[in-house]
Amino acid sequence: MNRESAEKIIGSALAGGRKVLSEYESKRVLKAYDIPVTREVLVHEESEVAPVTADIGYPLVMKVCSAAIAHKTEKGLIRVDIRTDTEALQAFHEIKRGLEDQEGGVLIQEMIKGRRELVMGLTRDDQFGPCVMFGLGGIFTEILRDIVFRRAPLTREDALAMMREIRASGILDAVRGMEAADRERLADMLIGIGQIGIDLGRVREIDLNPVILSGKDPVVVDALIVLS
Question: Of 6, 7, 128, 222, whose CA is between 20 and 30 Å from 29?
C-alpha cells in the first residue's frame, strides 16, 4: 500500500480546482491500495498508439479519459473488442475528436472477459462516515438495487458477510461452467476501499462499476472517485 502516492494524485487534482478524478487517476489511487484494475495506458498522440497496443495485446478497449466527461458510454466515446492496428487508430481519432476542447486523452486497456459483473464503492455519510458498498453490477445496479453497505473500517468477516447478504449471492458460486469467485480477493478489495475512506478524508465517493469476474479473479474495469 502506498498512501503517499494516492494523496499526491488527489492533491494535484484539488490544486487544479477539480473535484472529480479521471478514470486513469482513480485507478492509480486504487492500485496504491492493491486493488486489481485493468492493465492500461493513457495516450495523447497517435504515435503512442502502436507501441501500447503491441504491449497490451488485442483485443482491447479504448475510451475517452477526462475528468470533465463522466458519461463516456452515453457520449459514444468507448470502443470495445478492438482487434487490429487499423481499428485502434480509427478509434483513437474518433475519441480524440469527442474530447473537443476538454483536457484529457485516450485510455487503452486490456479487454476483460467475464459474464459476471459486480459493483463496489464508497460513500461518505455525514452521520456515519465512510461506508463501503457491494452488490450486483453492470446494467443491473440501478435496476435491481441489489447492494449492501458496511461502515468502514471493515473486518474480513464484515466483507465476507456482505457477499452473503446480497440477493444474488449465488453469482459468486461455481455455476454454469464458471468457477467460484475468489471471495478472499473480493474481501481484500472491500477492506481496501474502506481503508481509502479512512485514510483519505477528501474522498467523498468511489464508484467501481463494473468489477468483472475474469474466471475467479475480480478486476476493476471502470472507476470514478469524487472528492470533497
Answer: 128
